[in-house]
Design goal:
Layout lengths: L1 H15 L2 H14 L3 E6 L10 E2 L2 E2 L7 E6 L3 E7 L5 E6 L6 H7 E5 L15 E10 L7 E4 L3 E3 L4
Antiparallel strand pairs: 1-6, 2-3, 4-5, 4-7, 7-8, 8-9, 8-10
Bound molecules: 2-acetamido-2-deoxy-beta-D-glucopyranose (4 copies).
Organism: Solanum bulbocastanum
InterPro entries: Phylloplanin-like
Protein name: Phylloplanin
Length: 155
């Protein structure tokens, strides 16, 4: 309640303020409305993570289709891993709230694992919840994928 009163006062102040104050308020809001980044690197393994098998490290998984799915499985955003296995999704902060992304969404890899290693399954999708990368002062966060699981019935 106190914070909604605070915002009401801010809005009223902005309406009667000088252009300089309006510009400062705009700067504050654009800081709060920074895009939400979800970045990660996908590896060619059953949990999508780097591992050491027989002394060799897991290769990365390039050209894989990566989706952000929320709720009952709606595809909210999608991309493809690059030649380094890296993916990056940028979300609009007005339409997305970090807390609901964390509780409601998963990163899903739809390209079969057999594409990067013929010994791995050709059915199912890799699925991981989101996690916070870091939380620097100011409360701005970046997100990434966690440990993947192979799911044969996608959500
Ligand atoms: C990834 O896709 C690009 C463009 O489609 C292709 O040139 C490249 O060979 C692919 N790389 C792998 C490892 O599949
Ligand atoms: C893949 O994307 C990552 C992160 O955006 C970037 O650092 C890297 O240079 C890219 N690699 C290639 C081969 O494009
Ligand atoms: C491919 O997957 C098999 C089965 O998990 C594993 O033993 C092998 O080391 C993998 N190959 C590479 C190049 O990672
Ligand atoms: C968040 O991600 C963006 C884009 O990848 C990067 O430029 C920035 O340094 C990251 N910031 C933090 C605090 O992780």
């Amino acid at each position: 309640m106190a914070s909604s009163k605070f915002f009401l006062i801010l809005i009223l102040a902005a309406l009667i303020a000088t252009p300089v104050v309006v510009a400062q308020l705009g700067g504050l809001l654009s800081g709060l409305l920074r895009p939400i980044n979800i970045d990660g690197v996908l590896f060619c393994s059953l949990n999508g993570k780097i591992d050491v098998l027989n002394g060799a490290t897991t290769p990365i998984f390039p050209n894989a289709s990566v989706q952000l799915r929320c709720g009952a499985g709606n595809v909210v955003s999608s991309t493809t891993t690059n030649e380094s296995g890296a993916f990056s999704l940028v979300l609009n902060p007005v339409q997305n709230i970090v807390s609901s992304l964390l509780s409601n969404c998963n990163i899903v890899v739809t390209t079969p694992l057999s594409t990067c290693n013929a010994s791995l399954p050709s059915v199912g999708v890799l699925q991981s919840p989101l996690q916070i990368v870091e939380k620097p002062a100011g409360g701005l966060v970046n997100l990434t994928s966690g440990v993947f699981q192979l799911i044969t019935q996608p959500n």
